[in-house]
Each structure stands twice: as C-alpha cells, then as structure tokens.
Design brief:
single chain; mainly alpha; Amino acid/polyamine transporter I; 4-stranded antiparallel β-sheet; 4 strands; about 70% helix; about 5% strand; elongated; BCCT_CS
Amino acid sequence: MKKTVRIRTTLSKGVIVPSLIFIVGICLLSAIFPSLTEDLLSAIKDIIFVNLNYVYVWSVTIFVLFLVYLMFSKYGNIRLGRNDSKPTYSFFSWISMLFAAGMGIGLMYFSVAEPMQHYSNEVFSGNTAVQRAKDAQLYTFFHWGIHAWAIYGIVGLSLAYFAYRYRLPLSLRSCFYPLLKDKIKGKWGNTIDVFALCSTFFGITTTLGFGVVQINSGLETLNILPGTSFIYQVLIVGVLVSLSIISAVSGVDKGVRILSNINIVSVVILLLFVLILGPTVYLIGSFTEGIGTYINEFFSLTFNTHVYEENTQQWFYDWTILYWAWWISWSPYVGLFIAKISKGRTIREFVAAVLIIPTLFNFIWMTVFGNSAIWFDANVADGALSQLAGNPDALMFRFLEYLPLTEIASFLTIAIIIIFFVTSADSGMFVMNSIATKNAPISPKWQTIGWGVLLAVLALMLLNAGGLTALQSMTLITALPFSLIMLLFIVSLIKALSIDRSYYERDFSATTIPWSGEFWKERLKQIVSFSDKKSVVGFIDTTVRDAFVELQEEFSRNDVEAKVNFYENPHRIELEIKYDVVNNFLYGVKGESRIVSDYLLNEENLPDIEGNQTFFPKSYFGDDREGYDVRFFTKNELISDVLKHYERFIEITSEERNEMFISSNTNRRLR
C-alpha cells in the first residue's frame, strides 16, 4: 500500500490562490517585458497622480484629523483589548519595532538623498541657497512626518481595535465588521485580504530590491566587493533573506524584537556620531527653526495641490503624491505589524506614540543627515554632493567621506541597513503569512520559509531584468483604491467606538433602589474597620453564596437556568446564566487586596491594622466592566445589585446595534 504524505498547511485557498496568480503574473510581466510593463504602468500611475491627486490629499488629511480627534476625545481611554488587558511589550521594545517596520531601509536610503534632491532641484533654482536649504528641510519633514504615520496609524488602530476589542481575527476583513457583519467571512473578506496581500508583497519586494542595491554600493565603496554586478546582489540577497527567515521563524517575541532593539541603539549611535562630528551648532539651530516652520506651514502644506503653480506641479506629483501613495500601499503591511504588537495599549497612547515619537525621531534624523549634507555641499564639497543627488545608492557613503572615521561610520551604516533589511523582511513574512492564513494562531514553519524564498526569487528576478520600477508603479497604483478602503475603516471605527462607549457607560435603570439606611450601625462598623483575608473569604462563603443560591432557585422558578460556580485561587463565586445566541450573563465576587498608605496606618483615630494590606470582596462581570467593593452589602442588597445588572444586560442585548459586543458567534470565531 502506498503511503500518502499530507503536508499540513493553514493557508486559506480563497486568499492564497488568487494572490499568488496575481503576484507571480505581474512579476513575470515586469521581468520578461520590463520596458513595456514599466511604460504601461507608469502611464496609468501618471494619469492617477495628475487627475486624481486630490483623492490622496483629502484622504491623508482626513486620516490626520481623525486620529488627532481620537487622541483628545472621550474615546481615548478605550483599551485595545479587554478592559483589564496589559501591553504585551515594554514601551521601548514597542517603539523600536513599530519604528523599524514603519520606515526601515527608506530612512537610510533617503536621509541624505531627499534633502539634497530638493536642494538641487531646478524647480527651486530661482531661490537663494538659504531658502532652498529651508525648503529642502520643510518638504522632507512634510513627507516623513505626521501624515505618513497617520496613514499607518489608521490601519494599525482599526486592526488592533477590532481584533482585540471585538475579538475578531487580526485581518483587514475584520475592520469591515460593523458594515458587512458576517459577510466578512465570505468572498468580500477574501477580496479584501487578497488586495492586502498583493499590496504588501509588492511594497516589500521593491523596497528590499532597492535596499540590496544600496548595500551593494556601500560594500563596493569600502572595497569589500569589487563591483555591483548581479552575482554580488544574488550573494547579498541569499545571506540576508536567510537571516530574515531565521529571525521570522523564531517569532516576533525573539527575532524581530531583539533585532529592532539592536537597530534602534545602532541608529542612535550613528546619529550622535554625525551630530557631534558634523556642524553641530548649525544642526541644532536648523532643527529648532525647522520645527517652527513645519508647525507654521502645517495646514498650508496639508491642503496645497500646487494648482496655481504650474512650475512645481510635476514636482508635487513626483514627490508628495508619490509619497502618500507609497505610504498607503505599505499601510496593510505596517498596520498589521503595528497592530500585532500593540495589544493592551489605550487608543490615546497608541495614537500619541504612533504619530509623535517616530515623527520627532524622523525630524531629528533627517535634519542631522540632510542638513549636514547641504552644509558640507555649500561649505566644503563645492557642490560635489549636489551633483550626486540623482544617485541615492552611493550618496550616503559619499557624504560620510566628509566626516572623520569614515570607514567606521560606513561599516556601521551598512550594518544598520542590513538589520533594517532583515527586520523589514522577517516582519513582512510574518504579516503575509498572517493575511494568507486569516491569522491562524499557529502555522508550520515551512510557510514562513516559503514567503522568504518567494521574496528573494522575485526580487532577484526583477533586479536582473530591470523590472523593479514597473513593480513600484504597480504598488503606487494599488494605493488609490486602498485609500478609499481606509476611509471606510474610519466609518467602521466611528460606528464601533460609539457603540463601545455607550455599551460600557450604560447606566442602571432608574428603578434601582438605593440603600435605605437599615442596619446603619453594622455598616458604620464595617466602614471604620479594615478587613483581613479570612473575613473576606467568610463573607463570600456566607452572604454572597446565600444570595446567589437564592437567586438561582428563583430564576429556576421563572424557567431561567442559572448556575452557581465556585473557584479557589483566587477565592471567588459566580452566578452564570448561559445563552446560545448572546454572551452569557455573569456576576461574580472575588477576594481582592490593596495597600494601605503609611500615613493612614499611623492615624490614631482609626482602628489598628496588622501589616499594610486590607482585603475586600470585589464584584466582576462577564463583559470586563470594572467591578467595585461589595463588602457593605447585605444579602438582599447583593441580590438587588445582581438584578440591576441583569436588567441592564437584558436591555442591551435587546438592541440590534450591540450585536458586535454581545454575539456569542463573534467570540466562537476566536476560540
């Protein structure tokens, strides 16, 4: 009998098959007919940029304004996860990973090249050298600042919110749940994920291709490699993709996090090196002035379409619109990765960190490198760096030649680019596998390896054939429809957040009867005394138990099946009513402790307390709302408290708009 070998896979056929057909098809066309494909795609891209550039301008503007509104709004305290969830990663690791994934190689590739290209651009040739230097810094800030991170922030926030708050799969399809409901599980959801997977693959492939060229150029400058022929690029790709696969297989908690932390430290060292040994006073002054100019010109830059300035319109298409399209095309990849590492953060914390911290670092980085290059070009190099503005692959290394310890700085630069390459590739493999598997919790390692191999093969094929530019155009074209999809993300978020806040802040019924004042002497005694653990356990085992058992019996008489659950460690008891269609109703009481302040321990007008801890019974609920101290409740008052929560539960579950929060089907999808 023949043995059938079955390869275990978590790939979704509805996503992976059409994605691979489209990806491989476009890459083959770009490799076999590079000139034809490039001309065709470039023509389509130009039509979009010239005639529909306002779509990008308005979309990015809305993204920025919406996130700023969320940061200062009443929704800012909503947590990306359960109300009691904590961040998975430390703040430093979190910032390091989102920064490495968000900008990566581009930060090294354009830090000198972009300011120098603006500075030497013929469009601004009529201005003085000082004005051209100011404009170069301003436009670089504009392209790498808040607008770029707002694009990533919209996708990352939408994914994190619906995945961790609504407990849906970490997939772009989940962001449409308020609009499409269960249709996200079918063809609509597959279409969204196919689009995201293709866009992610194209963006990573082109970026890594350009990164390989820059690494090759740096190694040639240092005489480590004799040239920049294709064989050397194959060698570089083979080594770096192998490292990326090893990092990706080890997981986000190990490979990606460790490399990101190493990279951010290396980047800071290189930054300080250039700042201290470069024109320090000029850099600090220009940074200060640049921040002020950026703030003053923020709204003017945001809404400017250059429609009245024909001489700068082509520059506007080639830079600003291209950047907005590029960031949008990268947003599925970066957004998914940011969402993956942001569980437990509040919306305010997420938005503030994503918009402000990377932006500020980008401004410092671009000032130190870009303004140093402009200063050297004007005062030392006699325009030599301006002449190299069109060759960004080599410009960074030529710039370093005007600093001391050039060789050491160049080695460090190459090391940083390599780590950026590896972190971009390994997080890209992780994200693509997540999309292709509909966020399966555990996938076989061969799938991750397969994505790495596919990236390497297609990137090398395009490098050899000269088809990277065509693929870049394809990436930018996909940004137009995805910008509209992102606007729908905002509609979904607004709908979901309003329901979220209403759900958790729904007050109790007006029929709730407050404490009547009966047994006031016993309550006064409880208020002025501190409880030990034994008394709390006794309260739960007597008062709470009696109340729940009596409630269970009365529910049973009214044809409602209720169950009383007992647990240890921590000591707690629950009254649970199970349902098939909606989430279960749950009211529990558990023992909690808190530290008593030292000044209160020394207060003579209060009873003595042993140690510095007091214990109390605290309520908790099935929907993670914050509970409260119930130690002053009598049995009947506790019964009344359970019933008012049950009445609230019945009212909320009867409203159709709360389906996203109360549907047990939603929770089953995540188990």
